[in-house]
Queue: 2 jobs
Job 1
Amino acid sequence: MAEKKVKLDEEKCVGCGICVDTCEKGVLEMTDDVLKIAHLEKCDGCNSCVEACPNEALSVSE
Ligand code: SF4
Ligand code: SF4
């Protein structure tokens, strides 16, 4: 069974940074106002960032 991991839709992301503070595992990082999934291996698919994003740019899937 595949693990659930976060995915980013770069076209929907406006770089607000809300999700970065929401993720307690340090998966997400902001560099020059661009969001990066910097540490995907740490993502446990908890869905917190998905719920926090106002633009539906993040999703969790297998
Ligand atoms: S799903 Fe959870 S662990 Fe993964 S990036 Fe989002 S907040 Fe972090
Ligand atoms: S909360 Fe959504 S729009 Fe804001 S930086 Fe994160 S993914 Fe992008």
Job 2
Amino acid sequence: MSRPVLQYRISARYGATEVLHEVAAALAPAQIVSLVGLSGSGKSTLALALLRLLRYRGGQVTGSIRLEGRELTTLAESEMRAIRGHRIGYVPQSPGLSLNPRLRVQTLLHETWRAHAAGPANHQALLESVQLPADAVFLRKRADELSTGQGQRLLIALALMHSPALLIADEPTSALDAITQASILDLFAKINRERGTAILFISHDLLSVAGISHRVDILHEGHLVESGPPVAVFRTPQHPFTRRLVAAMPRLVLPD
Ligand SMILES: Nc1ncnc2c1ncn2[C@@H]1O[C@H](COP(=O)(O)OP(=O)(O)O)[C@@H](O)[C@H]1O
Ligand SMILES: [Mg+2]
């Protein structure tokens, strides 16, 4: 296997309570790995720990996080700032909580660009790649004038702006209706195909992520209990929790 984009082994705690217990995994270049677990299992803690942002939520992390071969846990915050947004893109759950509602699309694009780079930007191609209109009317819209789906596409565009090797998306579709959810999942698959971006896709919904994932990691009460290709996880779940998760998946039952 070529060098992993990401390789980690971490534990995390809030005060005296450990919520991630030696969770270890790796992502190969251009791989989509879904991290699936129930609410409270530690998914967001893991995402924030990997970004070295957990302390802003009052948590502490121990262990190792290697991004493109480089150990992140020992880097200074200034060095981390150059990595976040550059080599790791982060897509949060909801545009409503993450985009300043008063700012216009063009301002959000411009500020994200300026935060990390010099020189002219090609915002048009970026917007087109996330299937947003790149015309003047759209660029002048304020964040609170966008639909949730458009807002989520814009968050994805901002995360992709500097062509990161890795995208971490923390339940990026859970605020969306089923059809928009499906189109955003398609968008992640397209980004992965066209750009070769590795994606860590966090979700509470095994069924919805199975189609786009090369591998599914199952997190249960802060333990990584199972990991494998979606087909294997569905057909032959090994861990009792995974078996329960698969058994609880909705099935369509039509009357005769
Ligand atoms: N700031 C915090 N202080 C104390 N406990 C927290 C904090 N944030 C999360 N937790 C706890 O850590 C566990 C994992 O939370 P989280 O990572 O947000 O789970 P998930 O994203 O899977 O829903 C939960 O039990 C949650 O209550
Ligand atoms: Mg969460």
